[in-house]
Amino acid sequence: MFSVTVRDHIMIAHSFRGEVFGPAQRLHGATYVVDATFRRAELDADNIVVDIGLAGQRLAAVLGELNYRNLDELPEFAGVNTSTEMLARTIADRLADLVHAGSLGEGARALAGITVTLHESHAAWASYERTL
Amino acid sequence: MFSVTVRDHIMIAHSFRGEVFGPAQRLHGATYVVDATFRRAELDADNIVVDIGLAGQRLAAVLGELNYRNLDELPEFAGVNTSTEMLARTIADRLADLVHAGSLGEGARALAGITVTLHESHAAWASYERTL
Amino acid sequence: MFSVTVRDHIMIAHSFRGEVFGPAQRLHGATYVVDATFRRAELDADNIVVDIGLAGQRLAAVLGELNYRNLDELPEFAGVNTSTEMLARTIADRLADLVHAGSLGEGARALAGITVTLHESHAAWASYERTL
Amino acid sequence: MFSVTVRDHIMIAHSFRGEVFGPAQRLHGATYVVDATFRRAELDADNIVVDIGLAGQRLAAVLGELNYRNLDELPEFAGVNTSTEMLARTIADRLADLVHAGSLGEGARALAGITVTLHESHAAWASYERTL
Amino acid sequence: MFSVTVRDHIMIAHSFRGEVFGPAQRLHGATYVVDATFRRAELDADNIVVDIGLAGQRLAAVLGELNYRNLDELPEFAGVNTSTEMLARTIADRLADLVHAGSLGEGARALAGITVTLHESHAAWASYERTL
Amino acid sequence: MFSVTVRDHIMIAHSFRGEVFGPAQRLHGATYVVDATFRRAELDADNIVVDIGLAGQRLAAVLGELNYRNLDELPEFAGVNTSTEMLARTIADRLADLVHAGSLGEGARALAGITVTLHESHAAWASYERTL
Asked: What is the pLDDT confidence band of residue E94, given thresholds at 50, 70 and 90?
C-alpha cells in the first residue's frame, strides 16, 4: 500500500459543551496542523498516488472554509462539539467528496482511503481514517 | 476509525544482556518520549474518543512508576531486557488495564485498541499496538 | 553563556483590529507552543541555570492566566492587538516579574535574561528577548 | 504487533516526465529523510524486533546506492519517474531482499513487514508498506 | 528585541567543486526548509514586527527564483559553490533588498535585521544573520 | 555572521546530588540529542563555515567518550553534577580543543565560536555558547 501526505494548518475559535471538557467549555481556540494522507494500492501511470499539487490545493480549499472562523457560529456545526476528532472526520469527508467529484483528478478515483490527522499542540493530536 | 494521541516522557537508566546490544550492555540510560494512542470506531455522545485530560493523567501515572528509575533494579523487570519495544508493550498493557478498570471513564470501555510509541532519539523509535 | 528552555502550550481565542490582519480580524484562535529560555553567564553551585522544575511550574502558572480564554475579553488586553509578538513579550515580562520576586528561587536572581518564543503553527513563530 | 523504526537521509537530483509534475519536470533535487519501519508479531529471545544497529547499517547501505546521485542517470531508473512514492517502494523492496538474504540477522527472518516513509519537506511525505 | 519567523521550502539540484565536498561534488540535490526571521527593537502601531502575510509572500517570491532549478545552470551562480551557508546569505540579502525597496510595507523599514536558516536534513542546517 | 549545525545523540546514565533535583537524585538516564553549531564571520574559499563531514565526525568522537556510559563512574565527573547545562559546556569545550588542535581542518581556525545544545526531551533543552 502506498500513501502520500500533505500538511497545512488552520486557526479557529470554538467552545465545547459537557463537563468532560472542563475549562475548554469557555470560548478559546486552536491552531490545527492538518495532515491529509491519501492511500492507494498501486501507483498510476505517472508513478504517483495523487497529483500532490492538486491535493495541497484541495486541502487548502477545504481548510479555507474553517480558517479564521469561530466554529460556534457556523450553521453546519450548530449544537455540535467541534472536537479535534470530529473535525478530522469533517475534513476527511469533505476531501472524500472532492475525490468522488473528480476534483483531485480522474486518476484519484482509484484512491483506496484517506486519513486526516489534526495536531492541536506539540503533545496531542487526533486522526480519522476512512475508505473511499 | 478514530484515534487520539497524548505525549509525555520518562528518563530512565538500564542495561541489556546479549551480544546483540554491543556497548548498550553497559549501564546507560534514555529519554523516552512516549506517545499513547487510543483508537475507537465511533465517537461518544460528547464527540470524543476519550477524555483527553484523563488520558494524559493516566499516562503520567503509568510513566511515573518508571520515571527517574534504574530499570535494572525494579523487581518486575528482573532478568528481562527492557528494550524500547518491550517497554512500549508494558506501557500499553498497563494503560489497557486502566481502561478495563474504568480509570479512563466509563465511556473508554468502548475503545478498540491502544498503540504506544517510544522515541529513544531523533532517529529511532519503537511501537506496540494491541486491541482492547 | 548558558541557557535552559522549557516548553508548554496554551489554546486561546482572539481577534485583531487593522487591515493588515486581513481575515484574522475575525474572531479565531490559536494554539501557542511556548518556549521559555532562561540565560545566565555562569552556573550556580548545583551546576544549573535555574531549577527546571520550578521554571516549568512558573511558566505553567503564567500560561494558566491565558489558557482557554478569549483574549478579547480580558481587561488587561482591552484595545490591544494580542499579536504573537506582543504575547511573547507579555509572557516574558511576567516571568521576569516572578524571577525578581524570588518565585524561581533565590539563585534565579543571577539570571541574565529571558527569551520567550511562541509557535503559532508549524510554519510561523515569534520571539521576544529581554534582559533581567 | 511490534515495530522498530530507524531514520536516515539522502540528497539526490532528478527530473520528472509528465505534465502533472509542472515545474518539477525540470532537473531539480530533494533531501529525503527516510524512516524504515520493521514490523513483527512477537519479540525474539532478546526482546527485540530486529538488531537496530544492523538495521541502521543496512538502511545506510541501501541509501548509499542513491545518495549524492542524479537518479536520471542511473540505469535502473531509465524511463522511470523516480517519485517519492516509487523511491519508498524501491528502498522497502531492497531492504526486504536483505532481510530474505539474512543480512539483518537470522532472527530477522521472522519479520512480518516493512514500511518506508520518505519526507520530502516539512509539509509532504510518502510511504510504501509491504509484507515480508 | 522582537522577531517573527516564517517557514517555506525549495527543492534544487547542484554540485560542488573542491575535494572537501567528497561525493557531493557529483550532481545531486536538496530540499532546503527555509526559515526567514525578521528582527525589530520595537513593535509597530499594529503591535507586529512585520506583516506576516506579506513576509511569507516575499519569501515565496525569493524562493521561487531558485525552486525546481539546477543551480549549476543559473548565471548568477556561475563558478560559485552554492553551499547551504552561501544560499542562506543569498536569500537573506534578497529579502533585505525587498525590505529596502518597501516591498514588505513601509513599516518594515524599521526592521533591525534578518536571519535565514536553511535545513538541509533532519540533522544539519546553516544560518546567515545580517543587519538591515 | 554564518553558522553551520550538525546533530547527533548520546544515551547515558547518571544521578544528581542536591535537593533541587528531587527524584532525579536517583540513578536514572537520558537521551541527549546534541546540536553543535559552528559560527564564523566570513565563509572560506570553498564557501563554507567548516567541513561538515569532519564536523560530524569530530562531534561523534566527542560524544563517543560519553555514549552508553554511567557518567557517575567517569573519573572526570567525580563529585560533579552532570547537568544538561554542564554537559553542553563539556562538549563545546572539547570541540573547541579539537578546533584549536586543527582536527576540524586548518580553515576551522577562523571559526568565531561554538554553541552546543542538548535536548533532554521534547519539552526541555539547554545550551552553552562560547567564543573560540
From this structure: very high
Chain B hits for F23, CB-CB cut-off 8 Å, are 67-68
Q: What is the DSSP string of chain A?
A: -EEEEEEEEEEEEE---SGGGGGGGSSEEEEEEEEEEEEESS--TTS-SS-HHHHHHHHHHHHHTTTT-BGGG-GGGTT----HHHHHHHHHHHHHHHHHTTTT-GGGGG--EEEEEEEEETTEEEEEEEE-
From D81, D125, D129, residue closest to A5, measured CB to CB: D125
CA dihedral D9, D12, D15, D20 (to 10 degrees): 10
**Using CA atoms, how far apart are residues A111 and A40, in angstroms rounded to an integer?**
5
What average pLDDT does chain E have?
97
Q: Could you tell me which residues are beta bridge partners of residue C117?
A: C35, C127
Provide ipTM, 2 decimals. Answer: 0.97
Q: What gap in Å lies between CA F9 and CA F113, rounded to an integer?
A: 21
Q: Chains meeting D at 3+ CB pairs closer than 8 A?
A: A, B, C, E
Alpha helix stretches (DSSP H) within C1-132: 52-64, 84-100
Pick D28's closest partner by Cβ from E68, E120, E121: E68
Chains that touch E (3 or more CB pairs under 8 A): B, C, D, F
Query: What is the spatial distance between Cα E122 and Cα F5, in angstroms, rounded to a whole number?
Result: 11
Select from E7, E21, E25, E27 the residue whose CB has the most chain D CBs within 10 Å, as the one to mutate to test that interface: E27
Instruction: Kindly report the nearest CA distance between residue F40 and chain E, in angstroms.
Output: 10
